[in-house]
Amino acid sequence: MRPAYASLDARALRHNLAQVRELTSARVMAIVKANGYGHGLVWVAKTLEGADAFGVASLEEALELRAAGIRQEICLLEGFFEAAEIPVILRERLTPVIHDHHQLEALRGAQSDHRCDAWIKVDTGMHRLGFDPAEVPAVAAELKASPFVDRLGLMSHLASAEEDASPVTLLQIEALERLSIPGFRRSLANSAGIMRWPAAHADWVRPGLMLYGVSPLDRSDAAPARLQPVMTLRSRLISVRRRKQGDAIGYGGAYRCSEDMPVGVVGVGYGDGYPREFRGAASVLVQGRRAPVIGRVSMDMLTVDLRGVPQARVGDEVILWGAGLPVEEVAEAAGTIPYTLLCGLTQRLPRREGP
Ligand SMILES: *Cc1c(COP(=O)(O)O)cnc(C)c1O
């Protein structure tokens, strides 16, 4: 069997949810969109049975959760995309976010005997989805009168929560507070909002990244929570050879050996979701020691400099990120954010529960 896989630590996932609860008394909507940030939608939801609700990006994801027996509230963070989804949402008691007039219009024409809860998305400054604050009273009145809607809430999303002392975030918090409608629950904070902005916690928080043990804040910032990585991307050395001074390694001969040195081949590549482009130096862990990635990353393999681990042998385990090597660090070297690395893992990569 090909040795690349992602191990998933259920204990760490539950620990991170407990860390969220230590930071806030708000209710917790665990965000599991994009296949649970690459960890597996159903596995994450079942492991986080203590969450008060789940947040997904599509009806398809919500139905997969219901089919797996998830009974909690499931929020459709972008609501519905077409009118045909409405009867299914009502039947399955999903909770759509209503962010646009075209959705109100579709709801007016719906036919169903069922009802659901809904969130009204308010644009407090992100300028992506949501109604203008000035439109909200009219939207709220219409939805209150709708035969399909029970409980309502106001949801907004922070644009710059990971920045310390961002004036934008303060304005967003104030804008949502000014809108408060009696009986409406309110939700604003993503992971960065939970970690940095207690004033943004409101009634419901919506952690994604931090549940997976990854911080949205700069690595230089003091971590307000003790998060543990849930995923460790693992493979093995499938070849170890001594190369000669001047040997060029891999496609394009992009790396040239400055001396005689051991070079290892790791059985993982961009076909698994490991990044191909790096700005800074990336490394992996072999026998707990760092080995720099050298040359170009291939689809199924990559090469590492084993001078720092001269006793390395074929079959040794290699950690690409996770335990002992934060994915935040790999993301920084790749000039991206940890979100894209986790979500970018491909389907062929097996996920297995274990530490
Ligand atoms: C993805 C998402 C979140 C979670 O964001 P993190 O930064 O991963 O915590 C919260 N709210 C909404 C609306 C989202 O789309």
Superfamily (CATH H level) name of the largest domain: Alanine racemase
User: Level of helix content?
Assistant: 25-40%
| Strand element count | 18
The strand order across the widest sheet is: 8-7-6-5-4-3-2-9
DSSP helical segment count: 11
Strand residues, percent: 15-25%
Task: State the CATH class of the largest domain.
Answer: Alpha Beta
Number of separate structural domains:
2
| Ligands bound, unique | pyridoxal-5'-phosphate
What's the CATH topology label of the largest domain?
A: TIM Barrel
Provide the low-confidence segments as ranges: none
Straight-line distance between termini:
20 Å
Main pleated sheet: 8 strands, parallel
- What is the 3D form? elongated
Kindly report the average pLDDT value. 96
Element-by-element helix/strand order: EHEHHEHEHEHEHEHEHEEEEEEEEEHHE
List the helices and strands and how they pair.
Blueprint: E1 5-8, H1 10-23, E2 27-31, H2 33-37, H3 41-47, E3 53-56, H4 59-67, E4 73-76, H5 86-91, E5 95-98, H6 101-108, E6 116-121, H7 136-145, E7 149-155, H8 167-179, E8 185-187, H9 191-196, E9 204-205, E10 231-243, E11 248-249, E12 255-256, E13 261-266, E14 283-286, E15 289-294, E16 302-305, E17 317-321, H10 327-333, H11 338-343, E18 351-353
Parallel strand pairs: 1-18, 2-3, 2-9, 3-4, 4-5, 5-6, 6-7, 7-8
Antiparallel strand pairs: 1-10, 10-13, 10-17, 11-12, 13-16, 14-15, 14-17, 15-16
Bound molecules: pyridoxal-5'-phosphate.
The site of pyridoxal-5'-phosphate has 12 residues, from α9.
